[in-house]
Amino acid sequence: MSTRYAFSIDLDRCIGCQACVVACHAGNELGAGEAYIAVRDIVRGQSPDFWGSFAHQRCFHCAEAPCVGVCPTGTLSKWNGLTVVATEKCSACGYCTDACPFHVPHIYNNHVSKCRACLEAVQDGQLPWCAETCPSQAIRFGEREAILAEAKGRAAALQSRYPKAQVYGETQLGGLGLLMVLLDEPAAYGLPENPVIPAAQTVWQTAVQPASAGLSALAAGVMGLMFLFARRQHAREKAALHGAETAPAAEAAPAGEPEAVQPGEAHHD
Description:
The protein is an alpha+beta fold. It has seven helices and ten strands. A hairpin with a 2-residue loop joins strand 4 (about 75-80) and strand 5 (about 80-85). The relative contact order is 0.16.
């Protein structure tokens, strides 16, 4: 059985330093204007009773990932609980951007752009750049079971100060690969309480995608027949041309005419 990995972000420990954003950008050699992580301030309440925290916008690595379900080229796929990207396959169709309930994937420079979980580093036994760099250890990465247990322990410990502290992502969409220790209700962070697969994806999977596959198969069949007919026609034309080339260059001399005498030969009556 393969390992299922996950991230966690403890928003009590997060200091909003943006180190994860910078490390991710540099480590993944992203282009100008491209980012896999965004961190913003949240301030609620009225003076003098302000409440502040930080919100992280990044891929949640859903177990039941809508973006994977609608991707027609296999650009997006699952690997050990993570939603990974094969950029070279992307057609920039944008289906994933519409399917994601968290509005994470976007098209950048004609390909989908989102967190790839630093796949090559993880496969080599290393940590993703964000978890490696976080100075307050707010971002953790590892086997999901252990990460979830740790997050639950943190949420329970925080409830004396934050009664609504909770773990977000334990069950949503089959269990997220990004677990967040929230200090308040999900809505305070702009997160849906119960994210759902958009109706557009259901239509895609039950109608459009099968129809597209059928049309693709039909198109392939038609192209195959056209190729077969063209090949047979070419064979006929080639056979006709070959027959013309092997025919006698000149017809036999008419009966009754003497055969031509070569120089130096005597003619006998």
